[in-house]
Amino acid sequence: MPTAWPTAADIMTAHPVTLPADAPISQALGLMRTHGFHEIPVLRKSRLIGMITFESIARRSSRSLSTKVEHLLILPPLVTPSTPFPELAEQLLATGLRAAPVVGRRGELVGVVSRTDLVRALPGLPQLAGADSPTVEAVASPATDVVREDELCRRLLSRVRLLEEHPLPVVDRKGRLVGAVGLADLGQVLWRPVTGGKRDVRANRSALDVKVGSIMHAPPITVPVGMPAMEAARRMTAEKVSSVFVVEGGRPARVLGQSDLLGLVIGRWRRPATKSRLEDVYVEITGLRGSGDPALLAEIDNVVARGLRRVARYVQPTLLTLHFAPHATHRTNDLTVEARLHTNQGIFYASHTGWNLLAGVSGLLEELAGQTRRVREIRRSRPSRAPADSDETSTGDPELEERIRVATGGDQAEE
């Protein structure tokens, strides 16, 4: 009998910190800094009306600190105490939020569940245990967005959405990892007063005109190549961070964030026992600049749908992650697109670099379809290559035999 997933009631934080609708931004920032929050539920007469987020405030940094939070609210996903773990992960990833309110039967706020709560519970989930648990480099995202320690904090404002996802690695002039900078660090200077008392000299520059190296936190939390992803989740919980860096040669190679770990849950949860519909495949896109263009998103959706139909001929896709990494040079508009595909036959990877975004996505899906086709051909050819006088006993269940081969390392010679 399959083990049940934990629910929001099992992992949520009860009696969360809240704000009234008429509270000023300054009060919201004070609570966020004190408690390390990124989102706070906002109530009007005990009724939940939305959430105030660090990102929504940062995007309107010109607003007065006396502005009421009700003018900057977002509508969060509403979950109930019975919402299972995978649905919680999917809701948070789909909305890009780090936390969501949990409401009762009468719509009352009963708690808040965050990505940190989910990651803390990951290592104890029996659904993710087993020999096929991936390593950090297999699930981490490429560290394409880095910050120089001598850059001004002002330039971080254009990367607020990235900072909301996870802290960015900070490197020195030689590209070596020296620290990390996140939204909490940016908050130290974002609303710093630039004027003093009557006898103080008025500052002639913005508080944002300081170097990143002066606000970053160091040393950064790193993990070695080959560490199991669940062990990295324990490290993130112990260090109270939302990401860790995979370092190679002193340089940040990949970033393992909470969203990468939660993607494993969605991929495992959506792995069906029978053939699934393409509508059930979860697609996550990160790093795409100008993603507000509906025409571009529609084209990407069409390309992805066609590619997944080809993949579905050979395996059952459950989760597709696409990460766009522009090279950001004045000489070329090239970008690298990396794909990670979760299926009922394991995880597949592909990468493409070029100037044509849609051609890159199409090429990735073709490569993934080719990989899955070869896997199916290998599986089909195995019985015919078995010796006629073999002493191995057949179970009569091909899927069970396949799991036995993987568990005993019987496939290593063919890889």
Mean pLDDT: 78
What separation lies between the terminal Cα atoms? 33 Å
Assembly state of the chains shown? single chain
Number of helices: 13
Descriptive report:
With 415 residues, this protein is an alpha/beta fold. It contains 13 helices and 17 strands. The protein has helices at residues 8-11, 25-35, 54-58, 85-95, 115-121, 136-139, 160-165, 183-190, 229-239, 258-269, 294-311, 357-385, 398-408, and strands at residues 13-14, 19-20, 39-44, 47-53, 99-103, 109-114, 141-142, 147-148, 168-171, 177-181, 222-223, 243-248, 251-257, 282-286, 317-326, 335-343, 346-354. It has a four-stranded mixed β-sheet. A four-stranded mixed β-sheet has the order 14-15-16-17, with helices on both faces. Strand 2 (19-20), helix 2 and strand 3 form a beta-alpha-beta unit. The longest helix is centred in the last third of the chain and has 29 residues, at 357-385. It is globular and about 70 Å long. It starts with 7 loop residues before the first helix and ends in a 7-residue tail after the last helix.
Concise account of the structure shown:
It is built from 13 helices and 17 strands. The chain is of the alpha/beta class and 415 residues long.
Task: Supply the key terms.
415 residues, 17 strands, four-stranded mixed beta sheet, alpha/beta, disordered C terminus
Strand-helix topology:
Layout: H1 8-11, E1 13-14, E2 19-20, H2 25-35, E3 39-44, E4 47-53, H3 54-58, H4 85-95, E5 99-103, E6 109-114, H5 115-121, H6 136-139, E7 141-142, E8 147-148, H7 160-165, E9 168-171, E10 177-181, H8 183-190, E11 222-223, H9 229-239, E12 243-248, E13 251-257, H10 258-269, E14 282-286, H11 294-311, E15 317-326, E16 335-343, E17 346-354, H12 357-385, H13 398-408
Parallel strand pairs: 2-3, 8-9, 11-12, 14-15
Antiparallel strand pairs: 1-6, 3-4, 5-6, 7-13, 9-10, 12-13, 15-16, 16-17
Helix pairs in contact: 4-10, 5-10, 11-12
